[in-house]
Amino acid sequence: MIYLVGVDHRIQHDGIESANLNQRKKFIDYLVSTFKELNISIVAEEFNEDSLEYSYAKNSTAKLAVQKNDIKHIYCDPNIKERKEIKIPSEDKICKDLGIKFIRNNSEDEARIIQEKRKYYIIRENFWLDKLSDSLHKEILIIIGTDHIKSFKKLLNSKNIPCTILNNNWCFENLLT
Fold it and tell me: Is the pTM higher than 0.90?
């Protein structure tokens, strides 16, 4: 069974523009209680080492949670090299192709970038599934951006892979600090 948790990506790391320490601790507590309740053996997340470095982060929140619980952790999002191999353009390339300067303060530009990135979601989501293919007989919790919840669930359903959504949007902004 695959359990889906949709998140605001800022909860996933301790780098720049991340959730604060208290909020990340609350997410770790949520994960640990979920591991125990559902007998989770693998945690996968839409994240990778390149994203950690890009965010100037030292730790993935999920990786910290699994370390205390003897659970396997998998970064399932393609890294820079893998994105090139599967032909997913970088955000810089998308901006260039759209004629948008990297420094932008325009919500219309942001919407155009997001719309262009969504064109590659199915490629990324299939990549995640490939990363998990050897473990589909286990209890897997996957942490993904809220924008992927419906489409990834649809992909899993199309392949007759049992899944359930635990949380559509685990968002730290809704927590009391």
Answer: yes
Does residue 112 sit within a domain?
no
Average pLDDT, the chain: 92
Inside any domain, residue 59: yes
Residue type at 55?
S
Is 70 domain-assigned?
yes
**Are 137 and 41 a contacting pair, CB within 8 Å?**
no
CA distance 141 to 87: 27
Burial of 61 (0-12, 13-18, 19+ CB in 10 A): buried
Q: What is the CATH number of the domain that holds 44?
A: 3.40.50
Q: How many domains does the chain have?
A: 1
How far the first Cα of the chain sits from its last, in Å, is 33
Identify the sign of the CA torsion 141, 143, 144, 148: positive
